[in-house]
Amino acid sequence: MTIKYLTKNDVLAACIGGSVYASGGGGFYEHGLEMAEAAVALSPVVLKTIDEFEEDDLIITQTAIGAPAGTTDWQMLGKDYIRAVELLLEKHPHPEKIKGILTPQNGKSSSTNGWLSASALGLAVVDATGDIRAHPTGKMGNMGVANDTTYETIQAVSGGRRETGRHIELSVQGTAAYTSKILRIASDLSGGFIAAARHPLTASYIKQNAVIGGLSKAIELGYCILEHQNEDGSSIIDAIVKHTHGEILAKGKVVAKDMTYTDEAFDVGKVKIKTESDNVTLHVQNEFMAVDSQALGRVATYPDVITLFRAKDAKALSTDEISIDEEVVVFKISHKHFPLSTGVKDPRVYP
């Protein structure tokens, strides 16, 4: 069997492709590059398919919890990601059974969630995701355990600036629904973003409930974009449309952006775009969750992938990168064109 090692080129592709699936959130591009490049420099990072694990091997999720609009003074160092996993391993009764680590979503940095911890602690990165795109709540990427009162999870976090007294380390055990609320509070108290490790689940469960191959989809899209990187923005977006079976919803100018940070570590607001013949509104809760057209009504809703590209260079914009009067392109991939995890299909994860 050929062993697949993640490379520095894969890091770039994952962050670029993940930026499209980020849907306006999904962490921070430079942070993703920094963490994943450290991972591949530290030790070989193995990427495994779910079929390469024994059915009773345990796989954990690594993520970052917080608000991506640049409204808070957060800090997550590489050692925070590693420490979060260590805290989970310390609390688990059988840490030797934990063999792999996956991300709950693709994104600017979240596609590379877990790579550094895997490198440091001898785990494999799993080619599966809790959701193909980025989402605002842990429930959406929890692959069906969010409201399962029979499943007792372990969740751990580490992050925050030590010099301001905001650094927090915490591990909790209980149902996913209630321990997740504790982690949201910890994220806010630490400065608005915190590294987390959670949910030991068997490989057989992951196989039935995750998006299998979800990480590869981001990496493959990234390589597609890199092939066209010397072209203009319009040509790059056309290549993305073709690769993903996506569609362009609108082209126009940003005329308003209203974002508010909440004490539950969410950025909530709206982005408004004026086109030649329409007014379009993107609804934000950390990520772009819906698009309304004044002429057509609702044209996209989570779990559709919703991306806002800067028109001139096809940069996928996070909510903190959007400027008034900027020319943009609103892009959608219908959820009919990619697999959905159990968590996304669970009506109980929606408010």
Automatic annotation (TrEMBL):
Gene3D superfamilies membership: CV3147-like, CV3147-like domain
Superkingdom: Bacteria
Domain S-Me-THD-like C-terminal: 179-334
All copies of domain S-Me-THD N-terminal, residue ranges: 15-147
Pfam families per record: S-Me-THD_C, S-Me-THD_N
InterPro entries: S-Me-THD-like_C, S-Me-THD_C_sf, S-Me-THD_N, S-Me-THD_N_sf
Protein name: OsrF
Annotated organism of origin: Streptococcus thermophilus
Lineage per the UniProt record: Bacteria, Bacillati, Bacillota, Bacilli, Lactobacillales
Gene: osrF
